[in-house]
Amino acid sequence: MKMENFFFVDATYFIEVDRLLRPGGYLVISGPPVQWAKQDKEWADLQAVARTLCYELILVDGSTAIWKKPNGDSCLPNQNEFGLALCDESDDPSFAWYFKLKKCVSRISSVKGEYAIGKIPNWPERIIKAPSRATQMKNGVDVFEADTRRWARRVAYYKKSLNLKLGTPAIRNVMDMNAFFGGFAAAISSDPAWVMNVVPARKPSTLGVIYDRGLVGVYHDWCEPFSTYPRTYDLIHVASIESLIRDPASRKSRCNLVDLMVEIDRILRPGGTVVIRDSPEVIDKVGRIAHAVRWTATIHEKEPESHGREKIFVASKKFWKLPSSSH
After folding, report:
1. Which of 19, 121, 157, 185 has its CA 20 to 30 A from that of 112?
2. Belongs to which family (predicted)?
């Protein structure tokens, strides 16, 4: 069986795309099988799946097709040639870490709140306005607004007092390893940079809020390698680094802090910057590991307005080579 047949005949590909796509959003497929030579059957199957899911075909131009996803899920027929049905009402389409691809179509109504195209504010208002999905957390709107203010204050301190190159052409690719609501990314949204917001898989699922803000992000378990090319990021930021490897229930470490920092070193560009916020005890551990991987580091006090015992660790990755052996 051809790969195209596998994806389109049983609709697995389209079901997952549908789960990811916001109601009222657009799906653009360019290339095979759209009006592609010797792929008439695959192209017909793709169109049939789209019709079954009630997608509106907006345009076909050459080998490019554009569909619009409906705003509701009530139009899915009970019987269709693909055997598709709506997922159970208890299904949560936001659960996506180590889940197999589903054989059912996620209900739009399964996600509480207004998140369809046209229902959320336009950019740039959407980055500062609390999305309705934030209300799924207790006191979510208040937490969201406090988090936004906190990171605006912290980033201002980073730029003014820590001399980070945020806002300059030197920093383009940025990662926040413990993003929560994406407050750090929102605080630098006017800078010439983009941020990969990482929501740890064992922490509250806030990725939907990040996307509602117009930001991007992923789930990840930091006891595993991050799927990216080495030396990718110019700046990596993490608040509460030890919490990334600690089990929320037992409070015990699931993996080693050394391994996590070696992974940070792998994905950080030579000359890149690491910013870590944590307790003095954790920062002391971080400093010893940083010395071993040859980072140049300094430790700073937190901004005056912040509470708690945090210290701020700032390090730069050196570009170094193993000494050449003499013969």
Report:
1. 185
2. Belongs to the methyltransferase superfamily.
Full residue range of the structural domain in which residue 311 is found: 125-317
In this structure, how many other beta carbons lie within 10 angstroms of the beta carbon of residue 20? 12
Using the structure block, give the residue that is written with the tokens 């907006």: 58
Query: What pTM did the predictor assign?
Result: 0.89
Choosing from 76, 110, 144, the residue where a domain stops is 110
Residues 173 and 285 in one domain: yes
225 φψ region: left (φ > 0), alpha (ψ -120 to 50), beta (else): beta
Encoded tokens for 91: 């299904």
Smallest Cα–Cα separation from 164: which of 265, 234, 217, 215? Answer: 234
> Which of helix, strand or coil describes residue 105?
strand
Residues 89 and 204 in one domain: no
Q: DSSP label at 322?
A: P
Q: How confident is the model at residue 97 (pLDDT cuts 50, 70, 90)?
A: confident
Distance CA 322, CA 327 (A): 15
Give the integer Cα–Cα distance in Å for 297 and 312. 10
